Amino acid sequence: MDWGDIAKQVIGLGAPILGTALGGPLGGAAGRILAEVVGASDATPEAVGRALTTSSADQITQAENVWAEAVRAEAEAVRSSVAETQATIRAELSSEDLLQRLWRPLYALELTFECAALWVVLVHEFWTGDMTAINALIGATGLLVSYWGFRFGVLGVYMSGRTREKVCAATGQDARGPFGQGVLGKLVKAVVTKK
What's the pLDDT at 194? Predict the structure, then answer.
C-alpha cells in the first residue's frame, strides 16, 4: 500500500487538494500531515488508512486546511526569494559602478592581447628559425588548450549573460524564459506546448 492508494478515499471524504497531493510526488509530506491530524499511530499509508475509517469530517477539513496552508507558505517563500533575486538583478543593472560596467570588456581585451602576444612570439620564432621556443610551445599545447578553452568559455558565458541583462533591461522580462534559449530549451518548450 502507498499514499496513492488512499488518495481517492481522501478526495471522497471532501479533501480534494490533499488527496491530489497524496497521489503525487508530495504524497509523503501530505501523508504526514494527514496522519498527524487524524491521529494515526504511524505516518504510513496503512496506519492512516485505518485511522480514516474512524475520522470525522472536521478532521478531514482540518487536514485539508493544514495542507493548503503549508502549500501557501511554500509558495510565499518561493515568491519572496524570486522577488529578492529580481530586485538584486535590477539593482546591479542600474548600478553606476565603473567596475560593474567595465569588467567584462576589460576581461575580453586582456584575453585578446594575450592571444595576440602568443602570435607575435610564434611569428617571431618562425621568422628567426629558433625552434627551441616553438618546441616548448608544442610541448605545452595541452596546457594552452585547456587554459584558453577555460578562458574563452568564461568569456562566452560573460558575453551571453550581458546580452541577457540588456534584453531584460529593455523588455522587462528574462530573455531565457523558463527553459533557456538553446536547442534543449526549445525542444523542452515544444514538448511542453504540445501537451
Answer: 57
